[in-house]
Recover the amino acids of this structure.
């Protein structure tokens, strides 16, 4: 008789239950619940976000290591600030870039943890402003390198238009444009936390909705525009004379930067839930490491291991 009653039981679809053996009706589970395997009871849905689990901890460690390496490079440059390689390559802009890279490494930490109203607003705005500031500094340095090597005669005096004040003005203006875009984004349609139950109906995926998609892509597009402009200018100056032409390393660093973020876009779009945040955090860290090593590893190598090459005569070459 028990077996007959078991056979009479109607199997329910996912999300429905029937807690009576001979029942022919199934009832829906509440919004935050899902049916168990036997379809006899409703259980809480799994809540998923980029938490401090193995993935979150790994990203945190990489972020802290990157920031620590940047601070170490800053200390090396500050200690050797009167040497040729630091002075020839514009020490002030180098310190600005290192400060910006430290912020870039640390801003990836905002993507870890449960999304809240404030964290969602801070995620993309802090990331976009810090990276825009960093690329603006590199753009300013590229313009200085290009101007210094193209001023072939004393009468050109092109460097008077790219003095320290003008360099800071370029960095300020380029960064303020991004700040204005972010301010308009936050005022008009800011990012907000959302509960995604459509991608996988048995789970609740906590994520940050971007609010205005147009503003989100404008922010990324502006950073891409800065990087492309910096790459083009550095590419034009790559064959200029000098044993340590910084335009070469800037060209390579911008190439890596653009490659990382071009591969990020399809990966971000196709990644669900916490993996989208992990992909964006990884892209931030990968591009930051690329800039740090390409721009500063050759200089640190000469400063620490080849001090005999750290002379103005060797660096200027022909």
């Amino acid at each position: 008789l028990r077996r007959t009653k078991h056979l009479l039981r109607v199997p329910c679809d996912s999300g429905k239950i029937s807690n009576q053996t001979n029942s022919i009706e199934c009832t829906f589970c509440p919004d935050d619940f899902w049916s168990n395997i036997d379809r006899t009871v409703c259980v809480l849905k799994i809540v998923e976000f980029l938490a401090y689990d193995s993935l979150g901890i790994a990203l945190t460690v990489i972020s802290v290591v990157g920031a620590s390496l940047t601070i170490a490079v800053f200390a090396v440059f500050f200690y050797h600030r009167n040497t040729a390689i630091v002075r020839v390559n514009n020490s002030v802009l180098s310190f600005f870039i290192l400060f910006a890279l430290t912020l870039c490494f640390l801003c990836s930490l905002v993507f870890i943890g449960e999304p809240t109203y404030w964290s969602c607003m801070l995620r993309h705005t802090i990331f976009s402003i810090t990276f825009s500031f960093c690329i603006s500094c590199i753009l300013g340095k590229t313009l200085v390198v290009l101007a210094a090597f193209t001023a072939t005669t004393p009468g050109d005096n092109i460097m008077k238009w790219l003095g320290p004040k003008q360099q800071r003005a370029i960095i300020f203006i380029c960064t303020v444009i991004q700040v204005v875009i972010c301010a308009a984004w936050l005022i008009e349609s800011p990012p907000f936390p959302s509960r995604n139950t459509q991608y996988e109906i048995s789970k609740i995926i906590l994520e940050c909705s971007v609010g205005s998609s147009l503003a989100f892509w404008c922010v990324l597009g502006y950073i891409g525009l800065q990087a492309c402009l910096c790459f083009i200018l550095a590419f034009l100056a790559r064959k200029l004379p000098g044993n340590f032409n910084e335009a070469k390393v800037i060209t390579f660093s911008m190439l890596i930067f653009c490659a990382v973020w071009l591969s990020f876009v399809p990966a971000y779009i196709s990644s669900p839930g916490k993996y989208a945040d992990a992909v964006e955090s990884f892209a931030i860290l990968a591009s930051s490491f690329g800039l740090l090593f390409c721009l500063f590893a050759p200089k640190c190598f000469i400063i620490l291991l080849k001090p005999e090459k750290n002379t103005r005569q060797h660096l200027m070459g022909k």
